[in-house]
TrEMBL record:
<dbReference type="GO" id="GO:0006559">
    <property type="term" value="P:L-phenylalanine catabolic process"/>
</dbReference>
<comment type="pathway">
    <text>Amino-acid degradation; L-phenylalanine degradation; acetoacetate and fumarate from L-phenylalanine: step 6/6.</text>
</comment>
<dbReference type="InterPro" id="IPR005959">
    <property type="entry name" value="Fumarylacetoacetase"/>
</dbReference>
<protein>
    <recommendedName>
        <fullName>fumarylacetoacetase</fullName>
        <ecNumber>3.7.1.2</ecNumber>
    </recommendedName>
</protein>
<feature type="binding site">
    <location>
        <position position="126"/>
    </location>
    <ligand>
        <name>Ca(2+)</name>
    </ligand>
</feature>
<feature type="domain" description="Fumarylacetoacetase-like C-terminal">
    <location>
        <begin position="124"/>
        <end position="398"/>
    </location>
</feature>
<keyword id="KW-0106">Calcium</keyword>
<dbReference type="GO" id="GO:0046872">
    <property type="term" value="F:metal ion binding"/>
</dbReference>
<keyword id="KW-0828">Tyrosine catabolism</keyword>
<keyword id="KW-0460">Magnesium</keyword>
<feature type="active site" description="Proton acceptor">
    <location>
        <position position="133"/>
    </location>
</feature>
<feature type="binding site">
    <location>
        <position position="200"/>
    </location>
    <ligand>
        <name>Ca(2+)</name>
    </ligand>
</feature>
<dbReference type="GO" id="GO:0004334">
    <property type="term" value="F:fumarylacetoacetase activity"/>
</dbReference>
<keyword id="KW-0378">Hydrolase</keyword>
<feature type="binding site">
    <location>
        <position position="239"/>
    </location>
    <ligand>
        <name>substrate</name>
    </ligand>
</feature>
<feature type="binding site">
    <location>
        <position position="256"/>
    </location>
    <ligand>
        <name>Mg(2+)</name>
    </ligand>
</feature>
<feature type="domain" description="Fumarylacetoacetase N-terminal">
    <location>
        <begin position="22"/>
        <end position="118"/>
    </location>
</feature>
């Protein structure tokens, strides 16, 4: 395990900062006097990449890459460019850099910046690859923790909506929709009464695959540019009524929040961890040579409106997944589906074996039957209007961490309908 890499940016040299030189995550920011532009987080500052490129400090490719407010153009240049940029940023920002005087004026305080979507989401797919989550959902909804017959063989997924993916901090209206109580004769329309979160990691595809051409798990692994935290907000009552037999639709289409910084696969490399032992051997096309998960500690926090602090309601680790993002991506493309730069893959809800490790309120409250208590003394089953939900994550190294930046969303009341 490497050590903290020292930077001349003082705030980057602590065990507490999510953004030491070891991390260098990619985001998009604006300030009172600048439009959205690409930036790299370092300590409590952001390096303005557009300004760095204009100043000739960054030269990647033949044409400007940072004249646009998203990271897709860098991704499109391929993995040699990804490595070259990371190495160059390391030079510019490391302790003793001869270029410090040129770089320092291009730093902006994170406190003065607003963060925006770091990349253009091409398409969004969500998986169902957390074993404990799948067992819990079976127990709650179908009376048995037994997994569906295909579960140990296929990373199950559904195609979501890129248009529903939003940056951390975006408020989410409680969705209206159709739902039907089990004993009701007819469905009714109105605000979801079972509004939930899903704790997930999002993998970002940075290299395309060709239409009609399958890929291997190792190729898929190389295609992943980086990761974000992902909250797949879910309306359980809408979902429960609509999703048989074709899968989630409106119940998961009203908002999916992501954390603001793309943490690169390169920064996470030393935190690789294996998938759990296979209970059923996977078909050979799903074999890969690398450990496909990462040791990333994850938390879910909940804060009612007006409460002075958030309560930790769940804590788990990305290593709880059964399938890796590379396996999911390989499976996604195996029949010939083209994968594009900017595709976002949700891992599926991450839950561990004990109640404190559950990644959704559905599980924490066992479908509303067992309310849980916040530090404020209030109880919850599902989300109430005004509640703020936060996902937090970091890979913990020896004296440093690779943090993601929080993935935050507050729930607003449903929009009136009919208007
Ligand atoms: O098991 C069910 O009936 C429902 C499962 C989910 O809603 C989970 C889902 O959307 C995929 C995931 O995030 O794991
Ligand atoms: Ca999900
Ligand atoms: Mg360009």
């Amino acid at each position: 395990m490497s050590q903290l890499k020292k930077s001349w940016v003082d705030s980057a040299n602590s065990a507490e900062t999510p953004f030491p030189l070891n991390n260098l995550p990619y985001g998009v920011f604006s300030t009172a006097d600048s439009e959205p532009r690409c930036g790299v987080a370092i300590g409590d500052m952001i390096l303005d990449m557009q300004a760095a490129e204009e100043a000739g400090l960054i030269e990647i490719g033949d044409e400007p890459v940072f004249d646009v407010p998203f990271w897709n153009e860098l991704m499109e240049l391929g993995s040699d460019a990804w490595s070259a940029l990371r190495a160059r940023l390391g030079q510019l920002l490391s302790e003793g850099s001869p270029e410090r005087d040129a770089v320092e004026p291009l730093l902006v305080a994170q406190a003065d910046a607003e963060l925006h979507m770091p990349f253009l989401v091409s398409e969004y797919t969500d998986f169902y690859a957390g074993r404990q989550h799948a067992a819990n959902m079976g127990a709650i909804l179908r009376g048995s923790p037994d997994l569906p017959a295909n579960w140990l063989h296929i990373p199950i997924g559904y195609n979501g909506r890129a248009s529903s993916v939003v940056i951390s901090g975006t408020p989410i209206h409680r969705p209206n929709g159709q739902r039907k109580a089990p004993d009701a004769e007819m469905p009714s329309f109105g605000p979801s009464m079972r509004l939930d979160i899903e704790l997930e990691m999002g993998a970002i595809v940075g290299k395309p695959s060709e239409f009609g051409q399958p890929i291997t798990v190792d190729e898929a692994d190389d295609m992943i540019f980086g990761y974000v935290l992902l909250n797949d907000w879910s309306a359980r009552d809408i979902q429960g009524w609509e999703y048989q037999p074709l899968g989630p639709f409106q119940g998961k289409a009203f908002g999916t929040s992501i954390s603001p910084w793309i943490v690169t696969a390169a920064a996470l490399e030393e935190f690789r961890a294996p998938t759990p032992e296979r209970e059923k051997e996977l078909l050979p096309y799903l074999d890969g040579s690398k450990d496909g998960l990462y040791d990333i500690e994850l938390q879910v926090l909940m804060q009612p409106e007006g409460a002075d602090k958030a309560s930790v309601v769940g804590e788990t680790n990305y290593t709880r997944m059964y399938y890796s993002a590379a396996e999911q991506l390989c499976h996604h493309a195996i029949g010939g589906c083209a994968m594009n730069v900017g595709d976002l893959l949700g891992s599926g809800t991450i839950s561990g074996p004990t109640k404190t490790e559950y990644g959704s309120l559905m599980e924490m409250s066992w479908a509303g039957r067992e309310p849980f208590t916040l530090d404020t003394g209030e109880t919850r089953t599902f989300i109430e209007d005004g509640d703020t939900l936060t996902l937090r994550g970091a890979a913990k190294g020896d004296g440093f961490q690779i943090g993601f930046g929080d993935c935050v969303g507050q729930i607003l009341p449903a929009v009136n309908w009919p208007k």
